């Protein structure tokens, strides 16, 4: 009788144990099942959050049916409890284990802001102000305050930030991106300056940056950059004025309304290269690496002039007579495209570059 009772107890224990094991196994397997979401969910993990706190919030958001299984999973896999702070994006089809893995790896959600070649510093600040999820620190700062914060106190901001697409997280600020863009430009400029050709009319890398910004604004055709740079380098070497429209437009500031006329060409500003010798005092835009490279590796041709054809490319000329003929052919009296510079009427026509 006793043996039968003992056997029965053993059988019950085995069955109970098996049932419990099956229940636990099913619960843990449930953590692998995809969660269906109507739209991506942003999930924020504040600094200092514990695994238990995060698990509770996952349950509250309906991402896991019972926190028990995630807590047990954490006991079985201690490495999966080391969750990193940040903002995460959970997509439909991810399982609770996928979500935990994302937070353990620190694969936070990234947003992006783009600084485009040819933009001014004003354009950069506008893009940062409009960027969603980016913390705004510099909104009310002056340009002087920004330059001091990036480590260039007293320097002009134009052209000093590298044009590129920058990824950021919700914990980063506009100042963080400005520092990255500034440092990137410093690196690129230093690399290109180190590999520059000999005999160029620049005393400093900054002067090359000024030239690169002019090249950037003068042509949208990549294959022409070194040709445009070559024209301007030769004019500098010959003591000729650059006479390029983009610098005039930059000097006009907000008064520029889409066209420049003879009065604008005659009006003195520090950037009017029809009125000043040499380079303007600062860059006029953000130059990309290709324009920086072109400024430091100009073509070795003999053209001193160019005019826009109207299709995004330019006609390059060696002599004034050739240039005047090209102007008559392509753009006589047309100055509404800042990438073209037909020879102005009057005494200045003998030196107009482009």
Automatic annotation (TrEMBL):
One of its GO terms (biological process) is peptidoglycan biosynthetic process. The record marks 218 as: Important for catalytic activity. Its EC number is 4.2.2.29. Keywords: Cell inner membrane, Cell membrane, Cell wall biogenesis/degradation, Lyase, Membrane, Transmembrane, Transmembrane helix. Gene3D superfamilies: Classic Zinc Finger, Endolytic murein transglycosylase. One of its GO terms (cellular component) is plasma membrane. Residues 331-354 are annotated as: Disordered. It catalyses: a peptidoglycan chain = a peptidoglycan chain with N-acetyl-1,6-anhydromuramyl-[peptide] at the reducing end + a peptidoglycan chain with N-acetylglucosamine at the non-reducing end. CDD domains: MltG_like (cd08010). It is an enzyme of class 4 (lyase). One of its GO terms (molecular function) is lytic endotransglycosylase activity. HAMAP family: MltG. Functions as a peptidoglycan terminase that cleaves nascent peptidoglycan strands endolytically to terminate their elongation. PANTHER family: ENDOLYTIC MUREIN TRANSGLYCOSYLASE. Belongs to the transglycosylase MltG family. This is Endolytic murein transglycosylase. The lineage of its organism: Bacteria, Pseudomonadati, Pseudomonadota, Gammaproteobacteria, Pseudomonadales.
